[in-house]
Amino acid sequence: MAGEIAIKIEGLTFTYAAGSKPALSDINLEIKRGEYLGIMGLNGAGKTTLGLSINGIVPQSTMGFYEGKVTVEGLDTSTTPVREMARTVGIVFDNPEFQMSQVSAAEEVALGLENLGVPTEEMPPRVSAALATVGLPGFEERSPMGLSGGQQQRLAIASVLAMHPRILFMDEPTSNLDPIGKEEVFELARKLNREDGLTVIVAEHECEVLAAYADRIVVLDQGKIVMIGTPSEVFARGDELAKLGLRVPQATELALDLGGSDKKNLPVTTEAAVKWVEAR
Length: 280
Ligand SMILES: Nc1ncnc2c1ncn2[C@@H]1O[C@H](COP(=O)(O)OP(=O)(O)O)[C@@H](O)[C@H]1O
Ligand SMILES: [Mg+2]
Fold this sequence. Notes:
single chain, alpha/beta, Rossmann fold, globular, binds adenosine-5'-diphosphate, binds magnesium ion
């Protein structure tokens, strides 16, 4: 399956309101099955709108003007019912607490399955399996409100994983979490990507985590793709990123300051920077 295309976006332009600038402007992008893609961009760059266009909320449940075509695992997201899309694409948003509505963790996870019409007797094993996958085994009866931020976000991920999606879109999933919670969520996403083969897309403004985990990074600015490449290739363009108001990882900054210019091998993590400096 590796190498096949999971998501194909062709000429996508979306504008929320007449007369305003497009939130997304002529986006063309192919995302491979099993890829871990990072999306970087300032507030308002279009990251969330891009995620919503992948699960069909844009344009189906959003007023606006839509052009182009988005195909996800063979499904046209402008016509496949959003409920149906949820079987293929799971979306997790930034504020876990806000996503919690139920009394117990099990009910929280079961909610999406109810919406899909999964028979009641099939739910407990799927709920328990999803909780175990996110590192919350036996948490069925726990109150979501009593969990840490990192645990809540992992519970939100369990809720979408129970629907067995092939694609996971995380929209700034750790912006409300402490460092430990951030680590928990990114380690989980890495495991789902590497071990279970999920296609993972993460919108994030912290460059360090994308540098450490992403296969490729897309940089959005005012609704347009302005850069795309491996973390080394993208972060090599530190000056251009700075003009867009974006940072590069400290490791890359150090290497660029020391005259590093080999885009393929520029370090993007501290570990790689140490090796890079030693090899000079
Ligand atoms: N529901 C909405 N109604 C009108 N405009 C919106 C709405 N959501 C987002 N926008 C606008 O679309 C653009 C892209 O926003 P968004 O996709 O939320 O970017 P990001 O997630 O990168 O912050 C921004 O200009 C934003 O103001
Ligand atoms: Mg957003």
